């Protein structure tokens, strides 16, 4: 495509950035929505903690299963086609969830939603690499991730305030309509650029996936992705509200306020990173160091939350701020690999994060049920579960702390 036929910057923002930002907004909204509606699901369907954890985590399981094929499809067919098709599946899943009246139906619908939104971030990143100058990619990434944080904010206090009027089923009907609208917008509004698509065969693409999974740098970041990124998603998407209600003794409205400020903190953290990442790197704090500092700080904040030391609203907001540094793993890890593998690197590490979120979310529910069955109170069982998650994060921080010694993959 000649430079004279390239869309203007304003056109690119309207036709590329905003539709993908809307998709990622819906993705994160769906990721965290069950945290607020969990009391309604428990009451209406008679779910236990393990059932609730399974229902919510099917999103992460389906999302994780989709990552490798999505990465290959994005390289072969482009983000416009892939993202539009998958968002139609999101709309279908949301409609089925709104109609569901049993655990199997709801779990299947939530899994379909997870599969449908599995490309929202990666398709956006792929689209940005095709249409925006390389020097703008860091800021574009920060802004699109901020749209996800805005989705998480919407799924907290605003959703809780709307539930008495539309109910949890009505909320999912709204999402179904929005998903279809965004899919149509992406397909018809986004410009096409075929020169960004990989033409290699499937065997070659899978061989690249194997190179990524077997590399030492990938293994060095895998545990961090599972227990920090995945663990944060498990808390944000479900277990923060039960903790605040059972351990702190708050009402659902007050717990939703805390979730709102957790997500506001994440939004502030991501915007701050977007604004300060380059100046910090110039002062000797590159993205890897920033991530190490932020995730260590997140363990400190989690310990204070568990010990109930300090104002809870401030602590949960601060947890969102420092946990935002975990998103640096996509760019940091990709820097250890050749550019030809960049797409598969990000989808593979995303796979680990969502497998971790699935395991942590469901595992915490099973542990809580088991401890309560043994006579422990719900609040005490949640404390034990949170302490074990913190211990897993501490162990995963060891290889992360040594990541600066890793050598790039040839």
From TrEMBL:
Residues 16-403 form the Major facilitator superfamily (MFS) profile domain. InterPro entries: MFS (IPR011701), MFS_dom (IPR020846), MFS_trans_sf (IPR036259), OPA_Antiporter (IPR051337). SUPFAM superfamilies: MFS general substrate transporter. It is found in: Endomembrane system. Its main location: membrane. The chain crosses the membrane at residues 12-30, 50-70, 82-99, 105-125, 137-159, 171-190, 221-239, 259-278, 345-364, 376-398. It is a multi-pass membrane protein. Keywords: Membrane, Transmembrane, Transmembrane helix. This is MFS transporter. The lineage of its organism: Bacteria, Pseudomonadati, Pseudomonadota, Betaproteobacteria, Rhodocyclales.
């Amino acid at each position: 495509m000649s430079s004279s036929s390239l869309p203007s910057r304003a056109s690119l923002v309207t036709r590329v950035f905003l539709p993908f930002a809307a998709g990622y907004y819906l993705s994160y909204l769906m990721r965290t929505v069950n945290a607020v509606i969990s009391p309604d699901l428990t009451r209406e369907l008679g779910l236990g903690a393990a059932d609730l954890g399974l229902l919510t985590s099917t999103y992460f399981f389906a999302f994780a299963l989709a990552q490798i094929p999505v990465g290959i499809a994005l390289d072969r067919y482009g983000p416009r086609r892939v993202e539009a098709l998958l968002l139609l599946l999101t709309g279908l899943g949301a409609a089925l969830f709104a109609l569901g009246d049993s655990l199997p139906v709801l779990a299947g619908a939530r899994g379909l939603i997870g599969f449908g939104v599995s490309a929202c971030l990666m398709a956006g990143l792929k689209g940005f690499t095709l249409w925006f100058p390389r020097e703008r990619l860091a800021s574009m990434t920060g802004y699109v991730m901020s749209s996800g944080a805005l989705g998480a904010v919407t799924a907290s206090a605003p959703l809780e305030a709307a539930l008495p009027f539309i109910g949890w089923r009505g909320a999912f009907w709204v999402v179904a309509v929005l998903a279809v609208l965004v899919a149509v917008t992406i397909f018809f509004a986004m410009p096409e650029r075929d020169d960004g698509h990989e033409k290699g065969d499937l065997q070659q693409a899978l061989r690249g996936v194997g190179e990524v999974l077997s590399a030492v740098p990938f293994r060095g970041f895998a545990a961090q992705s599972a227990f920090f990124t995945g663990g944060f998603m498990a808390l944000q998407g479900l277990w923060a509200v039960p903790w605040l209600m059972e351990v702190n003794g708050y009402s659902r409205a007050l717990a939703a306020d805390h979730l709102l400020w957790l997500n506001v903190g994440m939004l502030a953290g991501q915007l701050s990173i977007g604004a300060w990442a380059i100046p910090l790197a110039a002062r000797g704090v590159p993205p890897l160091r920033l991530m190490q500092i932020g995730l260590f700080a997140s363990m400190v904040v989690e310990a204070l939350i568990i010990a109930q030391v300090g104002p809870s609203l401030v602590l949960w907001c601060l947890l969102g701020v420092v946990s935002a540094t975990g998103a640096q793993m996509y760019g940091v890890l990709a820097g250890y690999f050749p550019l030809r593998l960049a797409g598969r690197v990000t989808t593979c590490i995303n796979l680990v994060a969502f497998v971790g979120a699935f395991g942590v979310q469901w595992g915490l529910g099973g542990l809580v049920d088991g401890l309560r069955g043994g006579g422990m109170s719900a609040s005490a069982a949640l404390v034990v579960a949170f302490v074990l998650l913190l211990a897993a994060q501490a162990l995963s921080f060891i290889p992360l702390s040594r990541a600066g010694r890793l050598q790039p993959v040839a």
